[in-house]
Amino acid sequence: RRVHGDAQSIRTHTRTPKMATRAQFENSNEIGVFSKLTNAYCLVSIGGSENFYSVFESELGAHIPVIHTSIAGTRVVGRLCVGNKNGLLVPSTTTDQELQHLRNSLPDRVVVQRVEERLSALGNCISTNDYVSLIHTDLDRETEQLVMDTLGVQDVFRSTIAGNVLVGSYCTFTNRGGLVHPMTSVEDLDELSSLLQVPLCAGTVNRGSDVIGAGLVANDWAAFCGLDTTSTELAVVENIFKLHDAQPGNAVADLRKSLMDQLA
Fold first, then answer.
1. Running DSSP on this structure, what letter comes out for residue 197?
2. Do the beta carbons of residue 164 and residue 136 sit within 8 Å?
């Protein structure tokens, strides 16, 4: 009996593994519309309840800056911009004040660039991690070059996801894994996975929503989903993004090590 009690106390004091976090912006579960998360910074829309901001601040604040901002005078920052640890692309409608605020608030190594692009909702049209980007099939050549230069990625692929051209809306991927539209075929999943060089999984968020980019933001050690996300969906997110063994800072080192192992 005493042994059983000891085991219980050990379980109590064992640090619980890192989990994905549920959040809500005002009354919306589409948190990916109102926030943008990378390994170097997090953008959160102005005007939301302080509770939404504090969810990000409590999880990320010790490691990366969490920045209040608007883009083009709107709150849908997650859909208008795209970024990674190297840079941030914003639409041409971004005001000078917003651009200056972003440059002042972001880490010095992050390049902020305005883009003259007809498809101005960049977050819907581009999905990226620190090494590779997927882009809308109709994006300008100049924009494709800016993605490579500003975000510092090695490869840019024009692609669709389950027949949808809005690759930023229907997938979210990091350097460790990714979640895509639930109707993505096995063949497409294999092809995308080989392009991105990360494991991918087809799934949903927010109790069956297929708009992954709007309901989920993630980096190499943290993920945030809408409040309606079920425990099953949450478990899929935690597994595919490998959140259980993730720690800030060593994620990139782990990736480099695995790449070196593959090359060796």
1. T
2. no
